[in-house]
């Protein structure tokens, strides 16, 4: 126990006291304080908590709270989350048919069973000589994901397209995600100006 101050003190508990050389003890109203006041015997040094200090004692004051200690060691790293990667939504795309054209596909391994949030980024150049309709969709194992459809009615080259959706629950293990389209009408040509990007996250 290290003493911070010796002499006249103003207490945190009860009354704060001051002892004068005449032996008269004066009391002062207590105030909230971050220190503790006690009485120490002038001859033996014995301490006691009391409302008054005698003429044979002197006031001793020390802090209620000690100095801040050093920072503790850094804790261990937490476990990895379930997010993993692999390389504006509409209604569900149609089921893949023999007439469907797969634009891009990738195989990934799910560390656990669950649903996948999947995305596709592509830039189609569609040229139609007449009325036509092109439906793009995202598929996991050939099954359309909810909300992963994009529909184009006529020629298109306006810029990048984003599509995303949520798959059905899939088991742990390898699965195939694909971007494919089905065209009807007078389609002259269709191509991609940039590499199709597929991504996803395990929910």
Task: Explain how this protein is built.
This protein has no helices and 13 strands. The chain is mostly beta strands. The chain has two domains: 5-63, no CATH class; 101-202, Jelly Rolls (Sandwich). The strands form four sheets. It has a four-stranded antiparallel β-sheet, with no helix packed on it. β4 and β5 (47-48) form a beta hairpin. The radius of gyration is 39 Å and the shape is rod-shaped. The model is unreliable at 1-31 and 82-91 (pLDDT under 50).
Short description:
It contains no helices and 13 strands. It has 203 residues and is mainly β.
What global shape is seen?
rod-shaped
Structural class: mainly beta
Let me know the largest β-sheet: 4 strands, antiparallel
Number of helices: 0
The helix fraction, in percent, is: under 10%
The level-1 CATH class of the largest domain: Mainly Beta
Q: How would you state the average pLDDT, rounded?
A: 75
In total, the number of strands is: 13
Rg over CA atoms: 39 Å
The CATH architecture of the largest domain comes to Sandwich
CATH topology of the largest domain: Jelly Rolls
Q: What count of structural domains?
A: 2
Oligomer: single chain
Tell me the β content: over 45%
Low-confidence stretches: 1-31, 82-91
Order of helices and strands: EEEEEEEEEEEEE
């Amino acid at each position: 126990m290290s003493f911070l101050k010796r002499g006249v003190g103003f207490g945190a508990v009860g009354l704060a006291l001051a002892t004068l050389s005449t032996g008269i003890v004066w009391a002062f109203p207590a105030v909230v304080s971050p220190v503790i006041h006690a009485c120490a015997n002038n001859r033996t040094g014995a301490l006691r908590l009391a409302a008054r200090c005698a003429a044979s004692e002197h006031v001793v004051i020390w802090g209620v709270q000690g100095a801040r200690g050093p920072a503790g060691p850094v804790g261990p790293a937490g476990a990895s989350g379930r997010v993993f990667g692999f390389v504006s939504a509409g209604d569900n795309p149609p089921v893949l048919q023999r007439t469907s054209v797969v634009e891009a596909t990738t195989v990934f391994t799910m560390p656990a069973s669950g649903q996948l949030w999947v995305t596709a980024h592509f830039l189609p150049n569609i040229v139609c000589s007449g009325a036509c309709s092109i439906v793009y969709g995202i598929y996991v194992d050939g099954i359309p994901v909810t909300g992963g459809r994009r529909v184009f009615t006529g020629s298109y080259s306006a810029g990048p397209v984003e599509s995303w959706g949520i798959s059905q629950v899939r088991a742990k293990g390898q699965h195939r995600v694909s971007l494919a389209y089905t065209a009807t009408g007078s389609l002259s040509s269709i191509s991609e100006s940039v590499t199709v990007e597929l991504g996803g996250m395990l929910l």
